[in-house]
Each structure stands twice: as C-alpha cells, then as structure tokens.
Amino acid sequence: MSTKESLCVTSPGPPRGGMRELIQVAMPLVLASAGHTFRLFSDRIMLARYSQEAIAASMPAGLLCFALMAFFIGTVGYVNTFVAQFSGADRPRSTGLAVWQGIYLAALGGIVVASMSLFSELIFATLGHSPEVQAEEVRYFDVLCWLSFPGIALSALNAFWSGRGKTRVVMIIELFCAAVNIGLNALLIFGYWGFPELGIVGAGLATALANTTALLLAMILFLSRFNRATFGSWPDKTFDLPLFRRVVRYGLPSGLQFGLDILAFFVFIAILGKYGNKELIASNIAFALNSAAYIPVISVGVAVSVLVGQAIGASEVAYAQRSVRSGLYVALLYNVVIGGAFLLFPETIVSMFGRPSDAAHAEALVMAQRCIAFIAGYLLFDAVYMMYSHAIKGAGDTRFALLAGGSLSWASLALPSYIAFRLGASFWTLWIILIIHVIIMSAVFALRYWGGKWQDMRVIDSATAASAELDIQADRGI
Fold first, then answer.
1. 110 near 148, Cβ under 8 Å?
2. What stretches of 261-308 adopt beta strand conformation (E)?
3. How is residue 412 annotated by DSSP?
4. What secondary structure letter does DSSP report for 403?
C-alpha cells in the first residue's frame, strides 16, 4: 500500500465519495458532537433548575464569548483543510507542522479573548437586561474569557486527526471532554459532595476545566512517537513563518466569517432579550434544543470539508462532488427527523427544562414550544447552507465565505431585527426574519457551489521550502 493510500480515507471500492465513505468519516464526528450537545444541554438544564437569572444569562454571555473565540476557532480550525490537502497530496510531514501554526494562533487568541473581560460590565450594561441577569452575564462571561485558550487550541489539535479522516480519535477526545464537563457541572453549579456552590460561575469553570483536560489528552496523543516520526508532530522547528502566513491567509477569512456570523446571532439574541426575561428564557431554551440539529450537521459538514480537501489535494473533482452530494442527503434526512420531532412533540421536548411550581417559568416553556416550531421551519435550508459552505471552504474558497456569509449575517439578520424592534414589531416577527435569513444564506452558497469556481482552488500550491524539505526527508524514510 502506498503512503498516499494509507493516509487518506479510503472506501472498499469505487466510486469514492459515496455515502459509505462519508458515514465512515462523519459518524465519529457526529458522536463527538452528540457529546458536545449533551454538554450544552447539561449546562442549560442545570442552570434552568438553579435559577431563572442563570438560564436567562447563560445564552447571551456564552454566545458573546463564543463569538469572540469563533474568530480564532474558525482560523485555527482551518488547519483541518491544510492537513486534508497535504494528506491528499501525499505530504505527511507537513501535517504536524501545520498544526503547530494553529497552536500559535490559538495562544494569540487566548490572550485577546481574555482581555475582553475588562469590558464585560460595559458590554452587558448596553443590552438592557434586568440588573440580576446582567450580574450573572458578567460573571459567566469573565470566567469563559479568562480560560478560553484550551477551547481554541483544541480545534487545532483535532484538525490533525479530522483532516486525515481519523475522526474516531476526535470522537474519543470530545466524549472524554463531555463526560468531564457534565460531572463538573453537577459538582460546581449545585455544590454536591462538598464542592462550593458556584451557580453560573461553576458552569463556566466546568466548561473551561473540561476543555483543559481534553487539550492535555489531545497533546499527549499528538506527540506520540509514531506521530513524531511519521507526521512531524515535533519538528526541529515548530514555527514556520511562510506556512504560518499561508494558514492566516486562508484561515483568517474563515475565522472572520465564523466570528461575524456568531456575533450577528448574539445581537439577534440580545434584541430578543429586550422583549423581557420570559422571551429571553424561551429563546435560550429553543436554541439549546436547536443545537441538537445544528451541531451534528456541522460535523457532517466537517466530514464533507475533509473529503473535499483530500479530493482537491489529489486533483479529483468528481470525488469531491460525490462527497458533497452524500453529505447533503445525510444532513437533509437528519434535519427532517429533528424538525418532525419539534413539530410533533414540542411539549415533551421542552419539559426537560422545567422547574416545578414556577408559574413564570412555565409560561416561558409554553413560548419555547412555539419557538422550536419556527426552528423546524428553517432546518432544511440550514442543512443546504451547511453542506455547500463547508464544501467550498474545504477547497479554499474562504474569501467568498467571508464576504457573503459575514455581510449577510448582518444585512439579513442583525440589522433587520434591530429595525423591526425599533419599529415596535412583535417578538415573533424577529423569528420570521431568522427564517428568511437562513433561506437567503442557503441560496447564496448553493449558487456559489454550483458555479464551480471552487474546483480550481487549493491552499497548498505554494509550499514553503522548509515544508518541502521535510516532505523529501519523509519520502526517503518511508
């Protein structure tokens, strides 16, 4: 078996990119995302049972911190495409070096995000939420910002395995992280077994500590003897300026797009919160449930990005196209099931977030049932957007993703929502705006994909001299 065959994801027979190969890559990522989804669920459910202020504050504060992290997670995570294309081009030693550039970017990101905690009180004072909710938002946001580095760096290390199609390792790391997070949630939110009762601060600490333990596990695996020898996970020089610049060149637009998307969504959530605590709680519950659809479909999108990246690296466009079609079928089917459940069993689903003998919270739960019906209205369009956006980014079309995705998030979601609120529109009008926004995004990225420009792109054309020399040395030793 050649080196190229051993490094790339393979299926038993032609044609490549079919449903079986996609599922082989995607299923471990979906299981890993299930662990992440369960982490979010445990946070929201436990905080909902802890206090109304805690559950109301968790979504805006958590989402704002994630929006700041997303600029760097999107950039660092794009190392996944470099690893995929290096693997497809039969250049194994460059993969480890690419991951190190992501780690350095993650360190920079951790410093920047941590510094934002200096402005937390000013930021949340502008949202107009109740003083009790604002206090919880500031506390939660500060903890998440101070300890943001492990979560960002984990994206770089996971790219080492996901980019090569070894997604089972990512699954193990993420499930381990989820188990630690859920256990720490119970201990630190409620103060079980002699631990201090920290409420929403405990939820933030649980998230950060779980990311830290997962990062340590990932680093141990990354630096194994086999990975050092085969993939250059501990090269003589971990920082390669030409490759670092290339990662920034292609990854930064992806990170900016991801960050602008999340930031626009944060503005949308903040505006929803201006209608009152009941509306904010209902929205938080609905979007926590939305993660059951959103996060697994992202995992399928990552699998599509990996297969497209490997196909482009190997100059096999037909293989990339089949991979995208397979991903689209899986994502649409999954979201049909989730959307059907939201429409048929809304009361049963939202009851997980209930608080006994709390009439005000019960009203929020009723409102949440209607919110998830709106979510069901855009799930199929969201699947289309996810698959096509990941496909073109897997090839290297990140500038279009930034210009189109970043601008539309504000032009068709954040800005219209603000205008509607100022004009006195109802709470439900904003949900209609959200559905229209997702439809527009899906149409724009579908047209870009069908245009075919991505087929002539790749991110590894101009290999650095240092990386090329590493590849030559590796080829001689294999």
1. yes
2. none
3. I
4. I
